[in-house]
Amino acid sequence: MARVPTVNDPPVEPYRIKVVESIALLSPEERERALQRAGYNLFNILSEEVYIDLLTDSGTSAMSDRQWAGMMLGDEAYAGSRNFVHFESTVRELTGYPHIIPTHQGRAAEHLLLAQLAHPGAIVPNNMHFDTTRAHVIRVGAKPLDLAVPEAYDCESPHPFKGDIEVPKLTALLEGPAGPSVPLVMVTLTNNTGGGQPVSLANVREVSSICRRHGKPLYLDICRWAENAFLIRDREAGEAQRSVREIGREIFDLADGALMSAKKDGLVNMGGFIATRDARLAARLKEELILFEGFPTYGGLARRDLEAISIGLREATDERYLEHRIGQVRFLADLLSSNDIPIMHPPGGHGVYLDVHRFLPNLTASQLPGQALSVELYREGGVRSVEVGAIMFGEEEAASGRTLELVRLAIPRRVYTETHLRYVAEVVRRVWDRRTTVRGLRMVEAPENLRHFTARFAPDGG
Length: 462
Ligand SMILES: *Cc1c(COP(=O)(O)O)cnc(C)c1O
Description:
Helices cover 40% and strands 12% of the residues. By secondary structure, the protein is α/β, with parallel strands linked by helices. The longest helix has 19 residues, at 319-337. Pyridoxal-5'-phosphate is lined by residues 58, 105-107, 130, 132-133, 188, 192, 221, 223, 261, 263-264, 272.
């Protein structure tokens, strides 16, 4: 069983630091000017203007000395590079899927897979669609449907697997009149949009058997499968003695294929893939791959990148690494909880999510409280976070009953130390202490798709 760290028992790094990168905190005036210039959208803030960057854990990992050494062994042949051979054999060994298709990142895998499997009028169920997955489902004219258990929408519920699909709802969908419109079922491990919450092995087993009964292919979004498997080992009855790789392998065996952004549990800065058992689908995907990404032995990546992914995927399943990784998330969550700051419980795999409804109850939905809180964390201490709420998911989602309004503090892998996390907790606490002074925002420029990336805002009433 993994050790559960507490505030007084911080996780100890299973690595030492060989290369360092300077960071600095701008003055309050400089931060205010940066916010104004950025239209109060933290995606428009320059990295150099940020002190602790918790915008995302995607592509922000520190690579190991072994990965950098692997980069030097890049064989940049267009076709048949040895790095592709290493990459393919690693993904096959970890997942058991025979057909491996590299892509430049996760959304490219979503683009190719959903264009093949979904169609106009189709319904695509998932526990919760990630923003780019949702956008790719909509792009092909299909409808994304979130079927997470009700506890997923309750920040205070102690449910250990808030990433689970609500099985009776999935069954009703597949057995009902809309059943024939479902071309595939997806499950996202961990459920990023819902707080990085894990999916239980029991739930994947049930979903798999329903899919098999109805002849529906099951595809997994495995961006954070190693973190999910670690949390299964930690929380699910009877799993404590198994390895993360064994648990992962059982999950993959239950599905027909997977897509992955290697920028998460691949411990690299760029890359992704599709893996499948379906030879005919793989052949069609490869034709499209050549059109959009590149030849099937590089798929939009430099060959040295494939080597780094191959090494990173193995390192991400190292249990000492995972114990520290998940330990950092728990450590930050414990620090915040000890100051009564409302967060999504229990903490998940890759970050701590602030519960905005309880943090800023005085702001109305139209005052964009999630965005206002993330802007305030930057203003207070140069900490960059991201809103996962009304702006990321919009009215269409609100209509579908989504009630979560979160601010995500995503922790990059192997990048920050205990002291950095203590600093972040202190900045959040200072904003918490003066929470009644936090002003709302309004959107002044709203693009139609994936608007959280490019929208601009202004202070409410300003
Ligand atoms: C990051 C992410 C994606 C998309 O991957 P990119 O590499 O950013 O394109 C898809 N699904 C989930 C759950 C993710 O977290």
